[in-house]
Amino acid sequence: MFSLKNKTAVVTGAGSGIGKAVALLLAQQGATVHAFDVNDTAANAVVQEITAAGGSGVAHVNDVTKQQDIVDTFNTIGSLDILVNCAGISHIGKVETTTEADFDRLFQVNVKGMYNCLFAAVPLMKQNGGGVILNMSSIAALVGLPDRFAYSMTKGAVLAMTLSVAKDYIADNIRCNCISPARVHTPFVDGFLAKNYPGKEAEMFEKLSKTQPIGRMAKPEEIAGLILYLCSDEASFITGCDYPIDGGFVKLNN
Ligand SMILES: NC(=O)c1ccc[n+]([C@@H]2O[C@H](COP(=O)([O-])OP(=O)(O)OC[C@H]3O[C@@H](n4cnc5c(N)ncnc54)[C@H](O)[C@@H]3O)[C@@H](O)[C@H]2O)c1
């Protein structure tokens, strides 16, 4: 079960956190993984790790906000079975503390970046007779979180794009789902704690851990396991769905 032998996968944001765990796991299951990241060192390091473990990987240093670069790179890959859209950035702020520049930056990476990869991948999947797409949403798309105005906006858009793509390409044998994690302990979380709560990182880490009823943050590998399932042939009846993976955050926080 869950074999990805002879499959080709693109993982964006593959250099760190969840994307890295996904790239490593898909390669371990036999896929050739094309690891996209704007961070050169990180993209190459994950491919080195894949290769060292006996897998097959190719690094692509790309910014998902640049449509032509993304399309050109996807076209060099040619045939594509799996797309995991993981690249994303965060912002802390309410509407009054979100500048136009913050809003545009979040939109560019989390929404337009995802659209660019969908735009590049769908024609390749159609040519290939089908494929599977997994988009990273968040619990921020499902419930009102404090101080996550722009971020929540982008993750709501991810959920809506997922449904739209799932509907439009169902007859082309393309499945499209998203997942909505609560907090996952990655450099993304460490980065925003350092930036937004300097000197109080440990205290805030504890506080954020406790917001999951299960009492901790997820590990990237736990998220990667669900993504592997959804991208495998074992999930062939699943499309147009969002899966919370949240330690009880959405349904047990009362
Ligand atoms: N960590 C969490 O708690 C959490 C929870 C829910 C959803 N998510 C989502 O999961 C995804 C991954 O989060 P993470 O915690 O692993 O983050 P991370 O910061 O550890 O990794 C994100 C990666 O994306 C890359 N990236 C950023 N902008 C890019 C761009 N323009 N083009 C290409 N690559 C770019 C970064 O270089 C980095 O390697 C994001 O979409 C995030 O919104 C994270």
UniProtKB/TrEMBL annotation:
It comes from the Bacteria. Belongs to the short-chain dehydrogenases/reductases (SDR) family. Transmembrane segments: none annotated. Keywords: Oxidoreductase. NCBIfam families: PRK07231.1 (NF005559). Coiled coil: none annotated. GO terms for molecular function: oxidoreductase activity. This is SDR family NAD(P)-dependent oxidoreductase. Pfam families: adh_short_C2.
